[in-house]
Amino acid sequence: MVKDPVCGMTINEKDAAGSITYKGEKYFFCAPGCKISFIKNPKKYLIEHYLNKIDKSGQLKNNRKDEES
């Protein structure tokens, strides 16, 4: 499962309405409109996307989970 960086919806990669590789990383979208919005202004959505991955202490949420398991 992946998260659409535009709307935040969690989707299955196989069911994605579209995808794009931007600066070496692949992003998946729930609808064509989200993909178009991303293409028009990727920095806007990537800032929000990465800020959502950081907890209050400044650590990546995924990394903290791995350390706590």
Number of strands: 4
Number of helices: 3
The chain-level structural class is: alpha+beta
Strand order of the largest sheet: 1-2
Please compute the radius of gyration using only Cα atoms: 13 Å
**Mean pLDDT, all residues:** 84
Number of domains: 1
Q: Detail the poorly predicted runs.
A: 63-69
Q: Main β-sheet: number of strands, strand sense, barrel status?
A: 2 strands, antiparallel
Order of helices and strands: EEEEHHH
Distance between the termini: 20 Å
> Could you estimate the helical fraction of the residues in percent?
25-40%
Oligomer: single chain
What global shape is seen?
globular
Walk me through this protein's architecture.
The longest helix is centred in the C-terminal third of the chain and has 10 residues, at 42-51. The two termini are 20 Å apart. Helix content is 39%, strand content 20%. The chain has one domain (2-68). It has 69 residues and is of the alpha+beta class. The strands form two sheets. Strands 1-2 form a two-stranded antiparallel ribbon. A two-stranded antiparallel sheet has the order 3-4. Strand 3 and strand 4 form a beta hairpin. Helix 1 (32-40) packs across helix 2. It contains three helices and four strands; from the N terminus they run E-E-E-E-H-H-H.
